[in-house]
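I trust your eye. Have a critical look at both lines of this record:
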Amino acid sequence: MINKSIFDNYNGQEIYKYTLSDDKLQADVITFGATVTALRVNTGDKWVDVALGFKSVTDQIAKGDYMGAIAGRCANRIEDGKFTLNGVQYQLATNNGTNHLHGGMEGFDKKIYSDSTEEGKLLLRYYSKDGDQGYCGNVDFTVVYSVEDGALNIEYRAVSDKDTLFNVTNHLYFNLNGESDGSILDNMLSINADSYTPDRPNLIPTGELASVAGTPFDFTVFKAIGQDINADDEQLKIAGGFDHNFCLNSNHAATAYSVKTGIVMDVYTDLPGVQFYSGNFLSGNVGKSCYKRNSGFCLETQKYPNAINQPNFPSVVLKAGEKFVSKTSYKFTLRNK
């Protein structure tokens, strides 16, 4: 089922909210940033909103931390905002120290999308022009949202008229205790990855694929997010917690679980990596609730950070005329508390 309503008015333009639902899950998605503003899971006795989010576009822009929005044209960090493609060096907008992050100052998270529905799915489309934030090529991008059997399905489609970079993700923040709970440190997590990409102090990967074995980054067996977050580990100190790319073993990327609510979330993707972020930089901004440090966690499916400058990483180059298609699903179920 899909319902459409007005969410907000931004710069004189109406921003619409679509609610996609079945008997297990309700997802609110708005046309600004193609943002998921709520995810309500049916626990049997009540609906629990497990997605952090904001009540207005103005607040989302001012305080949003990319919350629930599409990050692109190229998600995550690119060192110094520089890359060379086909012998030409490009300089992207830098918005994270000297680095380019999540598409720049006005990435896909700050765009207004055209909207349509088709066979129970929501299609949000944005046309990114050549030169947008320093990127080359005109990119026709569509994100398709659907809710089916308790899963939020996100499909990304894109085509460019020039070779360019393309690596989008959704930057949902989760708290399976409920978005107002205040802490995700007791949320249980497993990540299906035997290796991860360590960072230098500027949060750019070293290029190494390091084993998680014997480190705080070993989530191959369920453990609480907070179990090792304060361990004496250089990588945790660099990021202030977890903010790292994990190299996935299969399309079943991760499973998270709340002992409080019994909500289980399984993440499936055809992408090679997932950025696990423990909300280290959340600073008390007020959205639907007050979101302090570690109030939410992210599992951002992606290709690896700074991949354009690391030849051993999966390529983020989208060739002219080539169709980009990728799908990620967040599947919600229940288990006994």
